[in-house]
């Protein structure tokens, strides 16, 4: 099971944090800080895996990937495969890239809720839901469309009345 | 310029529809981003919280604004600030009909609330309604929240709706419903146990995605109870086969691999089901071998599947062909430049060596490279591997390495871990007592406070009991060497407390035993310790008691005791100590010194720390005295619990009251029933009193309840230990077909730490086997490798016998052709080829379509073999002389039948023949090199294609794309 997904920038600021098992806010901060501490001390050409048991407790592994100013971090247990998780990060980033056309840190911050929408279509309750970024994009677009429609419906009476009153 | 960029972003943001944020939020993000210090950031966030509080308390907030506030709050909370004041608004938002608002509400509550938060009760109703909604997005949003917010109390409230969703027309919903059920199962297995059959049913879902989703819960279920799912082996195998043969829709392909995540999950399940089950395993061989061939190793995910195959192969009933394939993949992993693949290779190697221990030797240099790699993760993984392959021939090198690494790191968690590993290995494999003591000293010196106290006690016990049961001289040698080493160390500054305790105890017990050191010398040292660590009471206590022992031994040996002045002052200081324990020890010391020799000898016998002290619990030695008193007319003693019984006779009817009374009076912990019964028997053997006073019924009933409660308490205590043992078991594999004696010695030693003797004996069998193996494996010439590495390799893998190695290197001097790397890879290759020749003289092939019908009666590998290395076979048929295939056949036979334990014995007798084989293979190396060169290595065309594909996506898997994050890179 995937325990947590984090996006941290190179200054150690969290950009996205999702824990699939509840953690109180202070604990979350502590975890993010320790993860950042480990990641920032790692050299360039080393493996993407980190021994996470000292941070997250027994039977946990951590895989991360460094993109420009951001670290993407997945924490999971032994029922998952490290290389596969590394690819899942790739799927996540690819999808974001498609979503925002050349994604950058600002996109990640400003579209906080969309980030969550994308992530929820990839990982559901700690399990891998979808690994094809095309499929994820389809789902996310569908959600945007229906949300917009739902908005439009609620706005119609107002706009119609204002149009009439003109 | 910076600002312009940001403005551009903002404009772009506005065009993105529903996800755009207001200017305020942008400002917030920007100001936080520009904050110079943590304090400044804090200030900004607190200001924001104030603003939000004020805004949220305004009446009639427009919904759009509300959504914005909630998002800002989520952001603020992510930065670590408390946003609980607005949770209720998030909860309210989930009630909204507008999809956007509802989803935002669900997002916020699932991030804010724990599953036992008070507000959950307000959401459950909404969730129930939403799960029945006809808008599938509403259903999905609710399912998402359910995973996070529902606990075992609230599961029943939503369970019916979620189960209904298993038949939802949309596959995305079915999939999520399965996963939600799985989550319920993880959180409270009992509440969904009656629904487990649903997972089986959904395995046959029309949609592959839904089928894939059921694999996760099934994996969990199978982990717990393998046997009830054996019937699914056939289904899993056929699903895996279909997936591997690309029968799934194209949409499930990922990097040109068919549904790799499903493959991985299935392989994990098969690994569980096939473990220790020959019949099930046999039905898997074909499909696993198929995947080995089909998964390309150019992509990351392909390697993930290959790695999972290795895990599966090492878990199921061993099959030599599959092991061979696995070994090839491992060597490819280890030779890769990627640290990730090396890591996986080391991990896979650790899994495989328990089945075929000889494979490690092929990769000795790769392993050593990994050990010396600057990457900590890789290093630790390698230590894990070394731990698994430790035997008494290489324990010294491995433990030395571990200790060196332990000293170099600061991570206390890992330090503790590796220290315990060192201790464990040293206890298990120590080649000599001297070495053992030295190793333990090092461990204690550098990680003393992190080591479990038990380890210290074990060490003392070992020194006291000695290693050889009969050999007294060896024991006393051990002790005096321990004493000597401790006297050397004792002067060093800042030793850990636990270590000092051990030192004090050993010096007290054995400091003067061999007569080498005088009592005053030892006591002087002990006084120094007590003085230097004057704020550590337990060290002082150990020191004082040690001094007392020394003096007691002196007195009983009829020698004159001279008490050192510093010792005198120490005793005086301690007898006025705040700690009663120290006071008592000091007074005891003074009392013992003033006694005469015979008395001292009976109180403090020499070297009696291991003698059992017999305790007469019945106090029978007092019988005479009691009898005398009774005759003089004294009242017989009535035990306390029976006294209350007497009381009870007076108010007979009030049983309940009595029970309450005994409850309130019982302060001590509940014991097991047995000692309680014995305590009820009057110590002074006054049988009449028990007959007269009946045992009160209620207290008896309570006693009966005790066994139920007390074991559970002790279970909880030992749970951790048990769990850890399980982990060890897992790493070492279930007690399956592992050949050499080393796993068996592990299991025996994990059950009992004290029987070091038995363990070392078992192990010596293992070493004799492995040494035989070592001799031929070290024959591989290693010219280009640095002297130091070679030495390390030989000590790690090849045992310590140098005489055996020398002739082997001369043996091969003639055949040092080509680069070292290619030679290494060829040696095993050649072996494969030979076996194949033997197994299948006619390399004509059966077509794949035929083989899918899976004729299980025939070994599927024989059919597939020819496909593997057809060219190799062709080029090598003529090399198989009469003698070698014979031997190889023998080798193959033994491992096929799973009796690889006899393999070790077999080898030495056939060693000459084997030399022949290896020479033959080395002769063919040059010829073969060409063939494999073509087969191996990345195909340039593939690589180009992949590169262009990657470029199209705008994301590179390995390094940051220049396009990506361009605006921030500047």
**What do the pLDDT scores of chain B average to?**
71
Rg calculated over all Cα atoms of chain A: 19 Å
Q: Can you tell me the residue ranges of chain B where pLDDT is under 50 for at least 5 consecutive residues?
A: 1-19, 648-666, 675-783, 799-938, 953-970
Strand order of the largest sheet of chain A: 2-1-5-4-3
Task: Please report the number of helical segments of chain A.
Answer: 6
Largest interface, by Cβ-Cβ below 8 angstroms: which chains and how many residues each? A-B, 77 and 94 residues
Query: Distance between the terminal alpha carbons of chain A, to the nearest Å?
Result: 58 Å
Strand-pairing-aware structural class of chain A: alpha+beta
Q: What characteristic shape of chain B results from the CA principal axes?
A: extended
Question: How many β-strands of chain B, per DSSP?
Answer: 2
- The number of E-state strands of chain A comes to 7
Total domains of chain A, how many? 1
* Strand residue content of chain B: under 5%
The main pleated sheet of chain B reads as: 2 strands, antiparallel
Taking all residues together, what is the mean pLDDT of chain A? 86
Helix content of chain A: 40-55%
CATH C-level label of chain A: Alpha Beta
Pfam family, one (chain A): Clat_adaptor_s
Family (chain A): Belongs to the adaptor complexes small subunit family.
InterPro entries (chain A): AP_complex_ssu (IPR016635), AP_mu_sigma_su (IPR022775), APS3 (IPR027155), Clathrin_sm-chain_CS (IPR000804), Longin-like_dom_sf (IPR011012)
GO biological process, one term (chain A): Golgi to vacuole transport
